[in-house]
Specification:
The protein is built from 7 helices and 14 strands. The strands form 3 sheets. Strands 8, 9, 10, 11, 12, 13 and 14 form a 7-stranded mixed β-sheet that branches. Strands 3, 4, 5, 6 and 7 form a 5-stranded antiparallel β-sheet that branches. The chain has a two-stranded antiparallel ribbon with strand order 1-2. By secondary structure, the chain is of the alpha+beta class. The two termini are about 20 Å apart.
Length: about 350
Amino acid sequence: MTSGDGARGAGRRGVLRAGAAALLLGAAGCGSGAGRPAVTTGPAGTPTETSTWTVAPTPTGTPTVSALPNPALWQPGPSEVQPDVKRRAVELVAALGAWPPGGQGVEAARARVAALGLPPELADRAGPLAPTAAEASLEVIDAQYGGILADSASVLVVCRQWTRRADGSVAEGGTTVDVRLSRAAPRWTVTALNPGEPGPAAASPAPAVAQVLAQPRIELPPEAAADLRSGTVHDSVLAAMLRLAGPYTLSVSVVRTGHPLDVFGTTRPSDHPLGRAFDVWRIDGQAVVDPSTPRQLIESFMRDAAAAGSYNVGGPVAIPGVGNQFFTDDTHHDHVHVGFSA
């Protein structure tokens, strides 16, 4: 089952420089510039610092180009249901979304993908992961399940990306990629990928959009923020985010774009693409998948999400009840899903 929608059916269920990733980023010399902080991550891939990177003048007035951020490796933690599934998905996204100077283009991307032992034609589907730029670096903010079954899986790789403009300055963006995998030997293989494209910002978004975007206790990755700006997210989602931001700091992984259209393994529509759901991968700075995160904190958050109007709350904690609006499964071992009927 995909991320969410468990109450409507039985619940189912960064930058990783492995293999070819040494080619992408090591060869790029992507370190932080002198006196500039690099982007670092914690053990579970949690970003701890980001910076805006521009062309800076030297004391003599000669422009010098700063290095792109060089995030630490994203690695699945020890409590993952299927660690290699996430690792495989992240390897592919890193190969497609980061390259050294001069490493742009489809043919170069195909070579990086092939070096991972994956079908090189996957590079043809990179979409927004492969903008026109001479150099790029990528941070995986989180990798969560969109669905996990015995022999197939969807991993939602949530990214932040930096690309070098023609004038030497750096543009910051990001996307969320739905990576589909199937079981194979010796490792799972990737069968498809679907990078999200949220579309342009709405001319007149709802007032609550600005409130959510300005709320420091709501952490949104690039694609989720773009979803809000597009005007395609229901007011019920915005209101619940704001209400939950009172007692908690919530790190959102996915809202609408980048999520499977249907509940994974079924033909039932998911609430996410309809703008009626959001997923939270970290609560008060503590990753849901981390076994050291108190179960009481997660249960409290799930109950408060239901009190905020969600009819369908999924997570790693089983919460009993009559007419139960809560569910748990392997897919939701790593995040809390908050869904709405309207």
